[in-house]
Design a protein that fits this description.
The complex is a heterotetramer, with two copies of chain A (142 residues) and two copies of chain B (80 residues).
Chain A: E1 9-12, H1 18-25, E2 32-39, E3 43-44, E4 47-56, H2 58-75, E5 80-86, E6 88-91, E7 95-103, H3 106-123, E8 126-132, E9 135-139
Parallel strand pairs in A: 1-5
Antiparallel strand pairs in A: 2-7, 3-4, 4-6, 4-8, 5-7, 8-9
Helix pairs in contact in A: 2-3
Chain B: E1 2-6, H1 9-15, E2 19-23, H2 30-40, E3 50-53, E4 56-57, E5 69-73
Parallel strand pairs in B: 1-5
Antiparallel strand pairs in B: 1-2, 3-4, 3-5
The chains are: A alpha+beta (142), B alpha+beta (80).
C-alpha cells in the first residue's frame, strides 16, 4: 500500500470544491496550505475565447495524477497534495483544475504546488479545445 | 489477436470515432497500428502523439499483446 | 489614486472567507489564481499548542498590507493580490492569514503569493501568543 | 507637547496598559520615550522593538512632534 493510495485525485464534470481538497490534505502538523486554481481566461493568442471544452482519458488521467502525488510524497515526505481536474464545457473564470498542498512550512508548500501543476501539464492526458467567436481549435502542448 | 483503441481530442475528431477493437498480427508494434490509422486518415500524418498502452506511456516500438488498450495521446493541454 | 486603493486588505476577528479574496483578485485575463493559507499548527518547538492568540496594531497592519500590495503592483503589473489576517483566538487548523493572487500566468502567481506572505511576516505589526498546555508565550520574530 | 502611545503584545502585557498620552519636551526623541518606559519597567530592558510614528517604521533618533502616535513594535510574528 502506497502512501497516496487514499489521496484525492479525480477527473470530474462538476464544479470543483476547493474546500474538499483542503480538507483532504491539511493535518494538525501543517502551518501552510497552498491552493492553485487554473482558470479559464478570456484571451488566447489574441483571440477572444467564448468557452473551453476539456476532454480527458479519465482512467489514465487519474492514474497519472496519482503518480504525481507519489512523486510529491517521495520528494517532500512531510507534505500531502490533492488534484481535481474538471472536464466538459467551462466558461470564462471557471476553474479547470485545483491543486492543494498541506505542509508544515510555507516555502515548500509553494514549491510542491508548483511542481504538481507543472507535472499535470506535462503528463496528464487531458486536452482543451478553445472555442472562439469564429471557430475552434484543440490546443496541443509541446 | 485483438487490441482495443480509444481516441481523444483532435485524433477522435479527425477519425470521427471514440473507440474500436482492431485485429492485429502477433507481435504487432504500436507504430504499425498508427500507420494503419494514417493510411485510413491522411490528416493524421502530421499529428504528434505519445502512445500509451494500458494507461502507461510507452514507445512506438512497443510490442502489443492480446487484449491491450492502446491510445495515441495527442500533446496534452490540461491544467490551464 | 494608486492602483491598489480599492484592493482588499483587512484585519478581522472573523473566520476568513477565501472566496471573497479570490473574487477580489480574479479578472477575465487571469489563467491562474494562487491562494495561500497560514494555519495554526499543533506543535511548536516540540510543545503542544492548545490555541493561539493573535494581536494586531490594526490601522498600521492594514497600511503595511496595502504597501505590500503596492509592491506587488509595481513588480508584477499584470497581477492583483489580496490579504486578510485574522486576530483573536484561533484553534488548531484555523487560518490566521489568507493571501490570494490572480495572474495571467501560473509561475508568477506562485512567486507573487510567496512574496506577499514573506513580506507580511517581515513588516505587518501582528503578533501571536502560543498557549500551551503548561504556559504561554509571545512569539517574537527575528 | 503630547504624544499618544499604544502598546501591543509582549510590551502591552509587561506594562499592563494599552494606551496612554505622555507629556514630552519639545524635540524629544523616540529613544528618550523608550528610556522612560524602561526606567518604569526594567523587564523591558532586553525587549527588541522597531519604533513606529504615525504608523510608519522609523528610527530611535526620530524627533517627535506634538500629536504624534508612537508605538514600540515588538518583532512581528503574524502570518503563520
Amino acid at each position: 500500500m502506497t502512501t497516496t493510495e487514499r489521496a484525492l485525485c479525480r477527473v470530474t464534470t462538476e464544479k470543483i470544491d476547493a474546500q474538499e481538497l483542503i480538507d483532504a490534505v491539511q493535518t494538525a502538523a501543517d502551518g501552510a496550505v497552498c491552493v492553485f486554481y487554473g482558470v479559464v481566461r478570456e484571451d488566447s493568442r489574441n483571440k477572444k475565447v467564448r468557452f473551453l471544452e476539456y476532454d480527458a482519458y479519465p482512467e489514465m488521467a487519474e492514474k497519472k495524477m496519482r503518480d504525481i502525488l507519489e512523486e510529491v510524497a517521495v520528494r517532500w515526505p512531510e507534505q500531502r497534495a490533492a488534484i481535481v481536474h474538471r472536464v466538459g464545457t467551462l466558461g470564462i473564470g471557471e476553474a479547470s483544475v485545483v491543486i492543494a498542498v498541506g505542509s508544515p512550512h510555507r516555502g515548500e508548500s509553494f514549491e510542491a504546488c508548483r511542481y504538481v501543476i507543472d507535472r499535470v501539464k506535462q503528463e496528464v492526458p487531458i486536452w482543451k479545445k478553445e472555442v472562439f467567436t469564429d471557430g475552434e481549435e484543440w490546443v496541443e502542448g509541446s | 489477436m485483438r487490441v482495443r483503441l480509444r481516441y481523444f481530442a483532435s485524433i477522435r475528431e479527425r477519425l470521427g470515432r471514440t473507440t474500436e477493437e482492431l485485429e492485429v498480427p502477433e507481435g504487432a508494434l504500436v507504430s504499425e497500428v498508427w500507420e494503419r490509422l494514417v493510411a485510413e486518415c491522411p490528416a493524421l500524418e502530421q499529428q504528434r502523439y505519445r502512445p500509451a498502452v494500458n494507461q502507461e506511456y510507452t514507445s512506438p516500438g512497443h510490442v502489443l499483446r492480446d487484449g491491450d488498450e492502446l491510445v495515441f495521446i495527442p500533446p496534452v493541454s490540461g491544467g490551464l
